[in-house]
Amino acid sequence: MTILSGRVIMVTGGGRGIGRECALIAAQLGAKVLVNDLGGSISGDGAEKSNPAQLVVDEIVAAGGTAVANNESVTEIAAVRRMVEQARDELGGLHAVVNPAGILRDKIFHKMDEADWDSVIHVHMRGSFNVARCTIEHFREQRDGNYVYFSSTSGLIGNAGQANYGAAKMGIAGLSRILAMEGQSRGIRSNVIAPFAWTRMLDGVKPADDEMAARLERMKNTMRSDQVARFALALCAPGAEASGQIFGVRGDEIMLFSQPRPIRSVSRVGGWEVKDILDHGLGALAPSYVDLGAPSAVFPYDPIG
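-> structure tokens emitted (305 positions)
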């Protein structure tokens, strides 16, 4: 298929998981692909000798596609500038950035140290800023550009033990929204996907009982990275019009998330005293409070697929 023919797409974290599938499928759809992957561990430490970015590029080239590898980090803005220059010099341009690069350092908040916080925020939030800042002027000049960012239900809904990850993922949603607003007049779109997919980030999950083990096995078989990747690349297609949205992909199910808007309000002639707020204001709002359920409570059903 040639849905993305003539397009150049940069995929960060493209050596494994969702990023790998994005790179492979983008090439199958006719795009030229810059595959970026530092080759680090899930926690961001170390690097693999296998060079996962180059392995993906080799696979694309063997199938008749066009791709180049990059092994630098999205956390360094100079490195991201070099990625953009590489895409333009070696592939002839740049039209879209798909940005699933990320790490995890899970820890309950009262035991989380500064390094756990800083490393996750740096990769996800600073990395998201870097890829946007290094491409936005190019996109504005050519009046054509597209960002596909990745959030998480850990931020949109919440997940114990992931305060750092959830905070970063909510920040990405805010960044994407404003990029979409500011870029509208210049043909620039930005969207966010909250993916449900079995990747190495879930490999370490240890089931608490047989029921959870069976559910994890069903998830492994029905929530695949390629399902998320296909939707991400649909958002990159010239005919896609969506911008400023938050989507979810869970198996064969595609969902559109709501975004914060007032759902209930109360007012009081003459203003509120603290006691009035306690006695009346909060009580009037309470029926509309969002509960503290984790993603498993919001999505209690098995993935479709």
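The chain has a mean pLDDT of 92.
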